[in-house]
Amino acid sequence: MKKTVLSLVVAVAFGATFLPAQGRGGGGAQRGGSQRQGTSMGQGQRQGGQMGSPTSTTTRQQDRDRIRATDQQRDRLRTCDQTAKQIRTQARQMARDARGSQFNADQVRQQRDQIRERLQTMEQEHQQLMTGLSTQQKEALQNHVQNMEQIRERVNTHLQQVDAELNQENPDAKLVRQRAREMEQSMKEWQKQYQKMQSKMGGA
Fold this sequence. Notes:
The protein is mostly helical. 87% of the residues lie in helices and 0% in strands. The longest helix has 49 residues, at 2-50.
């Protein structure tokens, strides 16, 4: 009888020790499962955030497509660029012709007249280009257009100053040469604006 009672006491004590251990183990499993679930959700959120980037790329591509130049616009841009280059070259030549002892007022006047004619041609070409732009293109190119307008005013001012000096009985060669160089630099800047427009509109 005593052996039976002693066996029952040992069995109960053993069971009491075993059951809490199982509870702790089960809790650990639950915590581990929560951690894995949280990690999976975090990865899903990060992947979801990365999936948004193609949309931004698509939007930028659509913006470029809206201002992409037509073949006609590319031709006009190249024509304006070439005319600006011709005027720039002519202004450089006029500066050379206005060198000290080599100064020839009549020859410089011819250079001036050719520059004026080419400027008029270029302004007509420029106006045709601006008229052919869409609303989206005008908005995208607004800064370049404003820069070119300021440059145009400077070039006209340089030309007027050359006119005033060449109308003198004894023109100052040094002053004419200086204005011609300033005109050359202004045309270089104007040409760069056309090139930037070509790049932005997807032209070569």
